[in-house]
Design brief:
Layout lengths: L3 E7 L4 H14 L1 E10 L15 H4 L14 E10 L17 E6 L2 H9 L5 E3 L12 H10 L2 E5 L1 H5 L1 H18 L4 E4 L11 H10 L4 H6 L3 H15 L3 E8 L9 H4 E8 L4 E3 L1
Helix pairs in contact: 3-4
Length: 275
């Protein structure tokens, strides 16, 4: 059974609205969500990077995921809207408070920098306006090689017909370069009515130029890769996950500690190595 994720729920100071969005996401079957804190620096005055709120202050009790017996997992994410290279501070201590780090570049030069240089997890593609540049294959492939993903959000397409055209046009332009690789689909929902179920999102992915399998991966396995990449980014080297499996029928007769084999899955930012 696939584990579905929505890594972009817009943060709001309205606690009741945010709680409603999280509860709806759990009811729709999303096992993991990320509350997105937007940060758009300006040249006029210095702005403070937002600080994420503790989850227990945002919601009293985490809802149980539909079809599963465990509560939803809630993460924190920061998205920096870049109109200048100085807007992203690589060594800012405030970034460490967030589970996920994303940027939304507004120029071709900044997009190239985000793909090739910045230590981030997600590159957001603007869906509220026509992009002022075209996607080039070299930087896109560079981002894919580094394990960085591209995010397309669909809630703007629900709110306005003009934004719907921009969303589809920008998505199709991206697919020409990335060929459906390293793409995630998120809601960027500001209220519960803007959320859609996993299989509805898969159908939306077809409009964006993804295949059926790629659209499903965009809300499941690719999102999981983002979480692993974020852990790798924080540790600067890699992370190790262990799983236990039985090798043959004799394991049933032996002690569990001796009968089970451990597989070490070493995940790095560039590749997965199975030992």
């Amino acid at each position: 059974m696939s584990v579905f994720m929505d890594l972009n729920l817009s943060y709001t100071t309205d606690k009741n609205r945010l709680q409603s969005v999280i509860e709806t996401a759990a009811h729709l079957g999303f096992s993991t969500v990320a509350i997105n804190y937007g940060f758009e620096p300006t040249a006029k005055k210095k702005q403070e990077i937002p600080t994420p709120k503790p989850i227990n202050e945002l919601i009293d009790q985490l809802p149980i995921v539909q079809g599963r017996s465990r509560p939803i997992r809630v993460l924190n994410r920061l998205t920096v809207v870049m109109s200048d290279s100085s807007h992203f501070r690589p060594n800012a201590a405030e970034y460490r408070s967030f589970d996920l780090l994303a940027v939304q570049p507004t120029t071709e030069k900044l997009f190239h920098s985000a793909c090739m240089l910045l230590d981030i997890d997600i590159i957001c593609i603007s869906v509220t306006e026509k992009l002022p540049f075209f996607f080039k294959r070299a930087p896109v492939n560079g981002a894919v090689d580094r394990g960085v993903v591209f995010e397309l959000c669909y809630s703007a397409a629900i709110r306005d017909s003009t934004m719907r055209r921009y969303t589809i046009a920008n998505a199709l332009s991206l697919m020409e370069s990335c060929k459906g690789k390293n793409v995630i689909l998120s809601s960027a929902a500001e209220k519960a009515l803007e959320l859609r179920g996993p299989y509805d999102i898969t159908n939306l992915g077809l409009l964006f130029g993804l295949s059926d399998a790629e659209a499903k991966e965009a809300i499941s396995s690719t999102c999981r890769s983002v979480l692993l990449h974020a852990e790798t980014r924080k540790t600067a080297s890699g992370i190790i996950y262990t799983t236990k499996t039985c090798s043959d029928s004799t394991c049933q007769q032996e002690a569990p500690a001796r009968s089970e084999l451990c597989r070490l899955i070493v995940h790095s930012a560039k590749r997965n190595v199975l030992l």
